[in-house]
Amino acid sequence: MKVQKKRRYLVQKTILLIMIIYFAWFAYRTNESIHYTRTILQVSNHLQNKLYQSIIQNYCIGMYYDFEAEKDKQTFDYLVITLKEILPIYDFVSESTSNQKEIESALTYNMIIAQEGQDENHKSEIKDKEQKKEQKAVKKDKDKEETKEAANYSIDKLSDFDYLLSSFYVVDRTTTIDSSQLNAKAFLEKDMKMSHDNKNPQILIYHTHSQEAFSDSRPGDKTMSVVGVGDYLTSLLTDKYGYNVIHHKGEYDLESRDYAYTLAASAVEKILKDNPSIEVVIDLHRDGVNEKTHLTTNVNGKSTAQFMFFNGLSRTTKNGNIDYLYNPYISDNLAFSFQLQLKANMKYPGLARNIYLKGYRYNLHFRPKSILMEVGAQTNTFDEAKNTMDPIADILHQVLQ
Fold first, then answer.
1. What are the backbone dihedrals phi and psi of residue 117, each rounded to the nearest 5 degrees, phi first?
2. 8 A C-beta contact, residue 312 and residue 359
3. Which residues pair with 355 in a beta bridge?
4. What mean pLDDT value characterizes the chain?
5. Which of 152, 283, 297, 371 is the most buried (most CB within 10 A)?
6. Residues 264, 36, 356, 227: is their CA dihedral positive or negative?
7. C-alpha distance from residue 294 to each of 187, 212, 219, 384, 385 (Å)
8. For residue range 40-92, what is the model confidence (pLDDT) as tens digits?
9. Which residues lie across from 284 on neighbouring strands?
10. Where are the domains of the chain?
11. pLDDT tens sequence across 256-299
12. What is the spatial distance between Cα 335 and Cα 94, in angstroms, rounded to a whole number?
């Protein structure tokens, strides 16, 4: 009988310990999620505290008396601190859980927005492989072959989905696309020309990540960052091609990139509301790549940084369409980037990297002719990135005129 009682006692204690760990884990995860949803935080704080107090009072009697003696402490903080002291495994479990980056799981809206802010130049496996291919291609002298291939683009060839996908795109593993959405003929039939003259603003250039700089940029010097590259593009489009351009230099990534797109969205919305004549919206970035990767080609005798158009599809592989990141202009965005890419490939072979497709929205929903552009990377010099703006302005003009 005594042995059975001891066994029963040990089983009860084991079950109790498991329950404590489970409730602590649940409380921790709940607290993490609430961090991202401010409205829920305001409503649920009281309920959470009651839950934590109940856990302590019913399952941790000794801890309860200690807690009662220290009323100034938050219930959750006290529970976590105490559990860390008596259960070292809690620390390991909580850290392992928080480090999971499964971006296709059922995340809250704010978590998706934060991920969107971080991963636009995230080096995924597919992107790294593509960059290695590009690096090898740069070392080879293939200008003549590429020019010949560019001249041979035909609607029949472009109508082949497999050819179109492999020749013009890189699809990140977080999203999917098929021939119903990727249709070269439909893209080329879309009219991307400006609908009015330059009496009013026509083009907006801005930078979600204004702090992005280059290998020789001086710290704090905006004129040698991606903003400085935007200044040069603005002057080309204005002085050489006659467009009416607004270059917005707002900073949305000073402390963190997490909510840069959300912060930038409000400013862009206001600019577009004040200037409804704007038809083209360009979010100008600098990419992030392997330190051994140097994205350059030769254009008119100048070392020029390669560039890449970036499209968001508002759809993930696991969960499908993201309703709260709805973009009515996905088809137009894709058509705009494709027409620009085609012009670049035909006139400046080797300059444009393949268009990158990823799962979120990236503020491309404000105008049909919205584009996100990555110019060079952190391994390029400022002058290499600046040199890219001459052909960029040219292909923009070819599509828009």
1. -65, -30
2. yes
3. 169
4. 80
5. 283
6. positive
7. 31, 16, 21, 11, 12
8. 444 445 565 666 566 656 656 555 555 455 544 455 555 555 555 555 554 55
9. 373
10. 2-100, 114-400
11. 888 899 999 999 999 999 999 999 999 999 999 999 999 999 99
12. 45
Q: Which CATH superfamily is domain 114-400 in?
A: Zn-dependent exopeptidases (3.40.630.40)
- Cβ-contact 322, 314 below 8 angstroms: yes
Cβ atoms of 117 and 262 within 8 Å: the answer is: yes
pLDDT score at 18 = 72
Q: What is the distance between the terminal CA atoms of the chain, rounded to a whole angstrom?
A: 94
Does 111 or 93 have the greater pLDDT score? Answer: 111
**Residue 225 pLDDT:** 97
- Dihedral over Cα of 96, 101, 107, 112: its sign: positive
Beta strands in 20-178 (DSSP E): 169-171
Query: Is residue 379 predicted with pLDDT exceeding 60?
Result: yes
- For residue 45, which amino acid is it? N
Tokens of 119: 């991963």
Residue ranges with strand state E in 189-279: 203-206, 245-247
Q: Look at the chain and count its residues.
A: 401
